[in-house]
Amino acid sequence: MKKQILFLVLSLISITESFTQIVFEKGYYIDESDQKVECLIKNIDWKHNPKEIEYMLPQDNIVQLVNIENIKEFGIVGVSRYVKANVKIDRSSNAIINMSSNKNPDFHEEILFLNVLVEGNASLYVYEEANLTRFFYSIDGSEIEQLVHKPYLVNNKIARNNYFKQQIINNLVCEEIDMKDIEYLTYGKSDLKKIFIKYNTCINSVYTTYESKQKKNYFNLTIKPGLNYNALAIKNSMENSMDTDFGDNWGIRFGFEAEYIFPFNKNKWGVIIKPAFQYFSSETSKESNTISGGIIISKVLYGSLEIPVGVRYNIFLNDKSKIMLTGSYIFCTSNYSEIKFTRNDGSLLKSLDINPRRNVSFGLGYKYKDRYSLEFYYQTNRELLGDYLFWNSEYKTFSILIGYTLF
Questions:
Q1: Domain total for the chain?
Q2: 171 lies in the same domain as 38
Q3: CA-based, 20 to 30 A from 331: which of 32, 160, 354, 402?
């Protein structure tokens, strides 16, 4: 069964990838000679500011690569705009172990692609990478400068240089912006965009805001019932007369899934938690000349609460459908589950308590209209008898799940 399932999963992934289209959207770039090139740009909804982009010219459909050294700016129509700028940036660490005791920013001159958030008389930009977020601004086409916000240590306590508030007071002078607006301002996209938009509106400046066309609901809750195809075999390294293959059978599975989708990279990545209850029951018998009655009857009753926690990658086929690839680490708990061995007359020969260990699973699924889904999951072996020195088990599960997303 393992080889057949693995072959099926790999085949479906191969077919999926062959039909999946890379999304190129209408855009442009401006080269170093100020020539604007209309093209299609691969929109991966960058979480970190890019240093290069992939594009296609409409007439040849050949994917090409261009980096920051050769262009001044690029944009995706109606979605985003990036401009190259020679700026002074403070890269002081926010991590307490590397935090500076110097209040003042430590500026270094760099050439960066800045993401335009608000474009107008007062323009706002952001630069993001790994654990770094810095905002920049420009007034009426002036030189682009960083808005200063720096945590630093004073007597082993964290203090903050919030000079960005003073920069806004000095530069965004408008009767509709008062000190209360500045006092509670945070160094984040939402607050800074609001204040720059408010200023541009106040002085009657035409302005443009850029925002990726993202899924707004980043949390999904889905009902996930299904079927489990279970197989169990146990062995005793000291007494093989009790080795038992319980065979395989189909069982019902009840559960739900909570999913958080990361708000970047075109909603491709997410994390999931998928609690579910599953049940396995089987009985078998075999002849044995080592016990009275000559027959050993083996019976397993195993019910468990599984809590898979994992990562999901979405492959979008079109606006309505996507393929889901999921890998999970499974936590498991079980009460009143056991394996019993009895003689032919019903007397108890031996009883083993089941205490399941953790394992992993791999899933392949299809979702339609962000509402209906079908998934296939394969779990690696789960040890059920880990509390016993001479016993070991092979418990494997293949699941077919249907889903309905509530929200």
A1: 2
A2: yes
A3: 402
